[in-house]
Design a protein that fits this description.
26% helix; alpha+beta; 20 strands; 26% strand; globular; 9 helices; three-stranded antiparallel beta sheet; eight-stranded mixed beta sheet; single chain
């Protein structure tokens, strides 16, 4: 096993940064968690920070047997990127000035093998895919050779697509090709940070309590203190309304990451592949309320806002204590295979593009209950 991983690090050049949280004893490593952090542009280093936060949570769950490897698209250039990583005490494996393309990403995933999870943190367009480095190079569900990677993903592995609107088209397509569970968003996602009340809030003005500040160190998620400026206090989470932005105004949405197992589930082995992967994704969710199953489920499904008590309203609904609607928009019907929506046309910069329309009547709170019941099915694999 060690030879597989050592061969990966004998490459002479990279079009991106490759890093781990700390020096790794490769003789103990049995599998890898891969993080792909896209070019941040106007968002700065927040894709990288969200990858670091999630990777550190997973490092504490799997301290020796799994290693978290982060591929970071070129941000500022070679010398500046090295400086950024060194100041944050990260273990740099390789770096240069080229671009991180979909072709390179495929080759590096294929080279690593024995994958326990894959996390893509980047911009995304619902019908065009993840933008890692440039607008012209995207990872989609059709042209990217996902089916060639199936044997490299271990049983119980999973994929999380953290960017905007990844669940409408991309996540079901990848799940079908990869034969693994894929979690995707059903609206815009934005960055959350931990504030001084010990809660996650989106970090845009108006979405967090005006009387509170961001935490400077984080020991809520970890066994020891880690400084937030080094990237240990971020995550990407869905907004509590249908997408509205550059790609139009979507008519429907959901404020949680929808799980998809878009492949046959007729045998116990196939179902276990699905349920175990979802359970492991849930286990690694960066939850401040606790590490138990119930805390993870509520944090995973329920939206948050600094001015409105929507998180507790969602929890009360899932506990059967309330029927009050807390999502600010119409919802859509979903299964493990896909969600039902209409493809409509919108005009962007004078050109037509596909957009998300309404196909079925508003589902109200039913999708929350359906996903909550699905998560109860995966509970036996939450270990």
């Amino acid at each position: 096993m060690l030879l597989i991983f050592l061969s990966f690090f004998n490459l002479s050049s990279y079009g991106f940064s490759v890093l781990t949280l700390k020096p790794v004893d490769w003789s103990k490593v049995r599998s890898v968690d891969i993080f792909i952090a896209g070019y941040g542009e106007e968002l700065g280093l927040q894709f990288l920070y969200s990858a670091i936060t999630k990777a550190r949570v997973m490092d504490e769950i799997y301290p020796d047997s799994r290693v978290q490897i982060i591929f970071w698209a070129k941000e500022k250039g070679r010398e500046r990127d090295i400086e950024i990583l060194e100041k944050r005490d990260l273990n740099i494996i390789a770096i240069n000035d080229d671009l991180l393309t979909s072709e390179i990403i495929y080759k590096e995933i294929k080279r690593l093998k024995r994958i326990s999870s894959l996390h893509i943190l980047s911009h995304n367009a619902a019908f065009y895919g993840n933008r890692i480095q440039s607008k012209m190079t995207r990872i989609d569900g059709i042209h990217f050779p996902w089916s060639r990677l199936t044997n490299d993903f271990l049983p119980g592995s999973y994929v999380v697509l953290h960017g905007c609107n990844t669940g409408f088209v991309l996540a079901p397509q990848i799940s079908e090709a990869l034969q693994r569970p894929v979690l995707g968003s059903m609206t815009s996602t934005d960055f959350q940070e931990i504030f001084t009340d010990g809660s996650w809030y989106h970090n845009n003005p108006g979405q967090y309590p005006s009387s509170m500040n961001r935490m400077s160190t984080n020991r809520i998620l970890y066994e020891e203190d880690y400084e937030c400026w080094k990237g240990n206090c971020h995550r990407l989470m869905s907004n509590n309304h249908p997408y509205r932005g550059y790609w139009g105004e979507y008519e429907v949405g959901l404020p949680f990451f929808k799980s998809f197992c878009n492949y046959p589930l007729s045998t116990s082995r196939e179902r276990e592949t699905c349920y175990r992967g979802i359970a492991q994704a849930l286990k690694a969710w960066p939850t401040v309320e606790g590490e138990d199953f119930e805390s993870k489920v509520f944090d995973f499904l329920c939206p948050r806002h600094g001015k409105y008590n929507i998180f507790s309203q969602c929890v009360d609904y899932l506990k059967g204590k309330s029927e009050k609607k807390f999502f600010w928009g119409e919802t859509l019907p979903c299964t493990l295979k896909k969600c039902e929506f209409a493809t409509v046309e919108t005009i962007i910069e004078g050109r037509p593009h596909p957009s998300i329309g309404k196909k079925a009547p508003d589902q109200g709170m039913k999708p929350f209950r359906d996903e909550f019941l699905l998560l109860q099915k995966v509970r036996p694999y939450f270990k």
